Amino acid sequence: MELRTVKDAFDLQLSIVRDTFERVAKKQKLSSSKSQEVIDQVSHEIEQALANIKSVQGPMSPVDQKSILTELKHRLNAISALNQLEGSQKELNIDLSKYPKLLEKSFSSDMSKTYRNVDFDFHIVNQIIATHFYRQGLFDLGDCLINEAGEPEATALRSQFLELHQILDAIKVKNLEPALKWASTNREKLKLNGSNLELKIHRLQFVEILKGGNRAAALNYAKTFLSPFAALHMREIQKLIVCICWMGKLESSPHSELLAPTHWEKFPDELTRDFCNLLGQSCRSALSLAIAAGIEGLPTLLKLANVMAAKKQEWLAMKQLPVPVELGREYQFHSIFVCPVSREQGTEDNPPMLMPCLHVLCKQSITKMSKGSSRTFKCPYCPVEASVAQCRQLYF
């Protein structure tokens, strides 16, 4: 199974450790139970022998005492307490010896060996940490860090994230007014990003009105706020209007999925994503991304550090790692494109171009193959012909 996230890999590793621990704990309980059973058997035989001695009337002859003790010895030998205890303890010791090895393999006790002397811009680091606190709504903590570190410029996004958390706090009590106000203010920007967040807000509000059973209020809300979206979202609007006919029995309507609580549960994440997009920010903070990527790449760094243990100075002086550190697609933001024809790396002056056949070449390669004119040329990887005008720039 392919592990898609750091959390998946971590959960899998923890499950292995947990299963091994539970197996050791089970063996320990069995060993303890067996030991107690053997102790009880030995105690019973000794107590039985003492009872036999006390049951004899009058003074007991040495011969009688010896016979009782001899019988006790035979019974204890038959129990074979030592063999029974050694057997269960041996099984426990085998699993106990494996468990520390698994822990050592799963959780490296010395990650410092992966340390490399990399120059950091501490101003940027402070800003990243402070912005992370603002994203989490920890404004007092962010302000404290900025004041102590002397990074006043790090407050640039404070007011925006404060507005975001005020909106999210209102959503928790199903108050959509702040969210709707923000979406209305940024309506054009949201449209350019292909977002229909404003419609989703009105949909949530409209469904709440339907639940309240006020048909007149629902019709008025639909005319006032839903009708402007009909041109682009007619099907969605029709589903909402039909629900008015099912007022009082919405659970039986053909569109009862509109009542699902998941709409409210997913909405804060959708709003946060669109909010951050308008700010030009990633949905996840730079700090959380850096830590998650570091966790995923740590096994490779540990292995490399162990291999180069004898070359410590060389390891510390490296400016570039000798092996690639494979990370998931969620950590690939600025991929490097190398033209398969010219073998040159894409740049702003020589960007990658998507051909109609979906093959990608650098602009200079396409220009050379078309000989600088608008006439068609054949793709070097398939029979499709194209012109420069038909090729689309991907980025840069």
From TrEMBL:
GO terms for molecular function: ubiquitin protein ligase activity; zinc ion binding. One of its GO terms (cellular component) is cytoplasm. Residues 339-382 form the RING-Gid-type domain. A zinc finger (RING-Gid-type) spans 339-382. GO terms for biological process: proteasome-mediated ubiquitin-dependent protein catabolic process. Keywords: Cytoplasm, Metal-binding, Zinc, Zinc-finger. PANTHER family: GH10162P, MACROPHAGE ERYTHROBLAST ATTACHER-RELATED. This is RING-Gid-type domain-containing protein. It comes from Manihot esculenta. The lineage of its organism: Eukaryota, Viridiplantae, Streptophyta, Embryophyta, Tracheophyta.
